[in-house]
Amino acid sequence: IPKVIESHEKEMAKVVTNKDVYTNIANSSWKKEDELRSLKSEAAELDRKIALTLAPPDEEKDETEEKEQEENLPNNNYSVKMKNENNPVQDKEENSRLQSFRPKWRH
Q1: What pLDDT is stored for residue 78 in this prediction?
Q2: DSSP states of 70-85
Q3: Is 100 exposed, middle or buried (0-12, 13-18, 19+ CB in 10 A)?
Q4: For residues 22 and 28, is the Cβ–Cβ distance under 8 A?
Q5: 29: containing domain
Q6: Is 94 within the bounds of a domain?
Q7: Angle, helices 77-86/88-100, rounded to nearest 10 degrees
Q8: What's the pTM?
Q9: Residue 82 reports pLDDT greater than 70
Q10: Does residue 99 belong to any structural domain of this protein?
Q11: Does 66 fall in a domain?
Q12: Where are the annotated segments for Disordered (predicted)?
């Protein structure tokens, strides 16, 4: 047990000497953060485009109409809630359709 204690004390001494380096690394901005953010948004856009191309033409029209309505009423959560409350059958259909288009790598 004394050997274990001694090894841990050596490791603690190394950590204490490098503490400033570790805090600087943790507090600095990550180099790839902006690139990752842009790639995520690009992936979401491509995912949406794929879902639209796989959807039948009737659903594409409905989705474009819904999108136009959402663009006309930004940050209006009340209207979205009312739309979902008015037609629960449509809400279930949309959920099942969205789940069927979910890529396998996102599970």
Answers
A1: 47
A2: HHHSTT-HHHHHHHHH
A3: exposed
A4: no
A5: 1-55
A6: no
A7: 100
A8: 0.31
A9: no
A10: no
A11: no
A12: 53-107
DSSP string across 36-61: HHHHHHHHHHHHHHHHHHHS-HHHHH
Residue whose token pair is 């180099």? 31
How many domains are there within the chain?
1
Enter the tokens of residue 83: 């739309």
Give the number of residues written for the chain.
107
Q: Which amino acid is at 89?
A: V
What CA–CA distance (Å, rounded) separates 101 from 52?
Answer: 10
Q: How far apart are CA 7 and CA 17, in angstroms?
A: 16
CA-CA distance, 64 to 60, in Å (whole number)? 6
